[in-house]
Amino acid sequence: MSSSQKVAIVTGASQGLGAAIVKAYREQGYRVIATSRNIQQSDDPNVIAVAGDIGQRETAQRVVSEAVSRFGRVDALVNNAGIFIAKPFTAYTQEDYDAITSTNLNGFFHITQLAIAEMEKPKSGHVVNITTTLIEHAIDGVPSVLASLTKGGISAATRSLAIEYAKRGIRVNAVAPGIIKTPMHAPETHAALGALHPVGHMGEMSDIAQAVIYLENAPFVTGETLHVDGGQIAGH
């Protein structure tokens, strides 16, 4: 199979934001390795699904191995997989902590390390991390300490990696969404959730996918966090 077409890896890709990001990369002509715990194979021969827990290094190894063996390269990685559990801080359990840190931190570490190792070979590549505006702008009534702990670390790592790899042709950026209309939010919650944003409504999945593609096509942008949050980062 020809390896001239660019290849993107997208985690958390079975539904919601991840599925929208896969679609956006395909529209850009990329081949895609899509991974999540229970993902099904696509009818599109240019999308390969790899099922597994991204918090386990073995899954990350299979994902990157599939990208190289099937498509010959890794050009982009989108770290979209994430777990969000909204609880009062003292109500979090050890199981909550383990689940969130496994997916949000271990998942980021394993797949990013292996993908960047492939990008180093041609001295070209791009990593996009999906974080959250809650890192910088906590909201009363939306308890989010473990999200801030994990995604905040990834936000800092975004800048650190961007500087470490800037001279090696690899860019690293982040997208920080507000609350987006995904299957995890029931329609009856949309009005209340929309009111948390200065613009008065929730974002669409396409807003995030388009932000990722903007960064993909912006070669002079690295170390940036693009807030796609209806003005939340600016204040209330």
Secondary structure elements and pairings:
Elements: E1 7-11, H1 16-27, E2 31-36, E3 47-51, H2 57-71, E4 76-79, H3 94-119, E5 125-130, H4 145-165, E6 170-177, H5 190-194, H6 205-216, E7 225-228
Parallel strand pairs: 1-2, 1-4, 2-3, 4-5, 5-6, 6-7
Q: Shape, please?
A: globular
Q: Structural class, judged by helices and strands?
A: alpha/beta
Can you identify the CATH superfamily? NAD(P)-binding Rossmann-like Domain
Distance between the termini: 52 Å
Number of domains: 1
What's the number of helices? 6
Rg over C-alpha atoms, rounded to the nearest angstrom:
17 Å
Strand fraction equals 15-25%
Instruction: Please identify the top-level CATH class.
Output: Alpha Beta
What can be said about the biggest beta sheet?
A: 7 strands, parallel
Describe this structure in words.
By secondary structure, the chain is of the alpha/beta class. The chain has one domain (7-177, 204-228): NAD(P)-binding Rossmann-like Domain (Rossmann fold), CATH 3.40.50.720. It is 39% helix and 16% strand. The protein contains six helices and seven strands; from the N terminus they run βαββαβαβαβααβ. It has a seven-stranded parallel sheet with strand order 3-2-1-4-5-6-7, with helices on both faces. The longest helix has 26 residues, at 94-119. It is globular. The protein starts with 6 loop residues before the first strand and ends in an 8-residue tail after the last strand. The relative contact order is 0.14.
